[in-house]
Specification:
With 231 residues, the chain is an alpha/beta fold. Helices cover 38% and strands 16% of the residues. It contains seven helices and seven strands, in the order βαβαβαβαββαααβ. It has a seven-stranded mixed beta sheet, sandwiched between helices. α1 links the parallel β1 and β2. The longest helix has 16 residues. The protein is globular. It starts with 5 loop residues before the first strand and ends in a 14-residue tail after the last strand. The model has no long low-confidence stretch (mean pLDDT 97). Bound molecules: zinc ion. The site of zinc ion has 5 residues, from loops.
């Protein structure tokens, strides 16, 4: 397993692409080592199957150029932030050793997303424990950044917005790999789900005076070394 700079933790395969696909591509372009850990296989869904979803995930992983992608094998639709799940995730964090975690935003209609958000918070803390039977060496990711892949029509004010203009089309290609989730059985007349995603990206681009943007939230203040990267 590689040491990662950034790890995006997703309840289901497609959430990382939806909420942080632009950030992943931007960080990769800057030379960082970026991985995704899906907590469940995301199935069953109306138009998917475990095999179809795995193929779609592989295709999206190739589009993003990820350094690593794993699946923790927890149960879709029944994700619970219990001690066993915390142990599994903390053990994985000690092995891929990311500096920064991306977690789903904590308020959501989908119980798996709410559980995933709390599970990342708890597992991050456990990953640094000594005198434990967890695998690997103690490790504490320095930051958690929350992304938005939310089943509610809400958009809380973000802590910062990344300019992902050069990467937006590639993000859309990565999301479109999940045909069973976004294309099959969905209305083809605009605005489609992908149109909605593009328009929200454009809105956040407009908000920062750029082409396309991706919003993120942190619980703690964002520290800067300087102001050169401000748009
Ligand atoms: Zn999801």
């Amino acid at each position: 397993m590689p040491d990662l700079d950034y790890l995006v933790i997703a309840p289901h395969p497609d959430d990382a692409e939806l909420g942080a696909g632009g950030a992943i591509l931007l960080l990769k372009a800057q030379g960082a080592r970026v991985g995704v850990l899906d907590l469940t296989d995301g199935e069953p869904t109306p138009h998917g199957s475990p095999e179809i979803r795995r193929r779609e995930t592989d295709a999206a992983t190739a589009v993003l150029g990820l350094d690593w992608r794993g699946n923790l094998g927890l149960r879709n639709r029944s994700l619970v932030a219990d001690l066993d799940a915390r142990r599994h995730l903390a053990g994985a964090l000690r092995q891929v050793r990311p500096r920064v975690l991306f977690a789903p935003y904590w308020e959501d209609a989908h119980p798996d997303h709410v559980a995933a958000s709390g599970l990342v918070d708890a597992a991050r803390f456990w990953a640094k424990l000594s005198k434990t039977d967890l695998p690997g060496q103690a490790h504490y990711p320095e930051r958690i950044v929350y992304y938005f892949s939310v089943h509610l029509r809400i958009q809380p004010p973000p802590s910062f917005v990344l300019d992902v203009t050069p990467f937006h089309e590639t993000k859309m290609r990565a999301v479109a790999c999940y045909r069973s989730q976004f294309l099959e059985g969905r209305p083809a007349t605009p605005p489609t789900l992908l149109d909605d995603l593009r328009d929200r990206g454009r809105y956040w681009g407009w908000a920062i005076g750029a082409g396309y943007g991706e919003p993120f939230l942190t619980r703690e203040a964002v520290g800067l070394r300087g102001l050169r990267d401000l748009l």
